[in-house]
Amino acid sequence: MRSRGRPITHVEWSRMNHILVIGGTGTIGRQVLSQLVAKGAQVRAMARNPDAARLPPQVEVVRGDLTLPGTLDGCLDSIDTVFLVWTAPPSAVAPALERITKHARRIVFLSAPIKTQHPLFQQPNLLRAMFEQIERLIETSGVQWTFLRPGMFAANALTWWAPQIRAGDVVRWPYLAAPTAPIDERDIASVAVRALCEDRHAGAEYVLTGPQSLSQSEQVSTIAGVIGRTLRIQEITPDEARRELLRIGPLPAVNMLLEAWAAAIGQPAHVTSTVAEITGAPAKTFIEWATDNAAEFRA
Ligand SMILES: NC(=O)c1ccc[n+]([C@@H]2O[C@H](COP(=O)([O-])OP(=O)(O)OC[C@H]3O[C@@H](n4cnc5c(N)ncnc54)[C@H](OP(=O)(O)O)[C@@H]3O)[C@@H](O)[C@H]2O)c1
């Protein structure tokens, strides 16, 4: 990048680089914002309801909705770089991406490991076609891009197991032997911040995982150990899970998870060292994540 004929220094780019975080009130976006604020970056967050956003005072919060394309131009005004988390419906993709790619010079998209040849990631996936469409629109738009492809979030434990652990000593769950490599949301955010602020990540696709393959049963046992409780972990059948897990998402999402876990049994989870390679710090272990989130599992 150049300014009046001379290359722009890293410090100058950091000052000029105005970043919009879309999805800043969610699990990953919130971490991205707090790490950007700690770096002194210029940050704006888009939220559907800014009054309920509860973001640090250094963050400019603006109202916008991915399903209402007319709200996006104001959010994107004077923005150089966008961190994009997409949980909106597929019908909103094309009009929103048209606006985002028109304004931004760089986009870091939170995708998924849809190209990784491991059974956990290769089952029929409702989101695959939508993520492929978003990626295609970004790639063909001419903006600089980086795709983050995290595996299972450690934070899923907050919706999957915390309510049961707070309520009693029994955790009922399907496919207990299915291994995953849960990744700490802070590590995904650390890679995102590098990609948002440094030039060297253009065109990169980073498959991000935690450092260890752990069965779902081992993950629940880790939480039990951290909070000093004895939990009974009961395997339930896929049919029972279809009835009982509707609280974590609609039936198609539950079925998607069940198929992925079923296919994953019998081989270790896919583990990468990308977090350490990009950030210089080892990916956090699940026991570290559970220790830092122990309060969420206590009644
Ligand atoms: N969970 C996993 O294990 C996993 C693994 C790999 C990839 N992923 C991907 O990660 C993404 C989810 O990330 P997350 O857990 O950080 O998200 P999250 O906690 O569910 O938060 C969703 C964010 O999107 C915003 N949002 C939702 N609808 C919106 C709309 N119409 N317009 C503007 N903003 C909207 C929400 O903002 P407001 O509601 O405040 O407006 C919120 O900030 C998904 O794409 C998922 O497929 C998840």
How does this structure look, described?
By secondary structure, the protein is of the alpha/beta class. It has two domains: 2-151 and 183-208, Rossmann fold (3-Layer(aba) Sandwich); 156-181 and 212-269 and 284-297, Alpha-Beta Complex (UDP-galactose 4-epimerase, domain 1), CATH 3.90.25. The chain is 39% helix and 18% strand. It has 13 helices and 13 strands. The chain has helices at residues 10-16, 27-39, 72-76, 93-103, 128-139, 156-160, 162-167, 185-197, 216-227, 238-244, 251-264, 274-279, 286-292, and strands at residues 2-3, 6-7, 18-22, 42-47, 60-63, 81-85, 106-110, 144-150, 170-173, 179-180, 204-208, 214-215, 232-235. The strands form four sheets. Strands 5-4-3-6-7-8-11 form a seven-stranded parallel β-sheet, sandwiched between helices. Helix 4 (93-103) runs parallel beside helix 5 and helix 9 (216-227) packs across helix 13. The longest helix has 14 residues, at 251-264. The termini are far apart. Bound molecules: NADP nicotinamide-adenine-dinucleotide phosphate (NAP). NADP nicotinamide-adenine-dinucleotide phosphate (NAP) is lined by residues 22-29, 47-48, 65-67, 85-88, 110, 112, 127, 150, 152-153, 156.
What structural category arises from helix and sheet content?
alpha/beta
Uncertain residue ranges: none
Number of domains: 2
Radius of gyration, whole Å: 20 Å
Shape: globular
For the sheet with most strands, the description reads:
7 strands, parallel
Distance between the termini: 53 Å
Estimated helix fraction? 25-40%
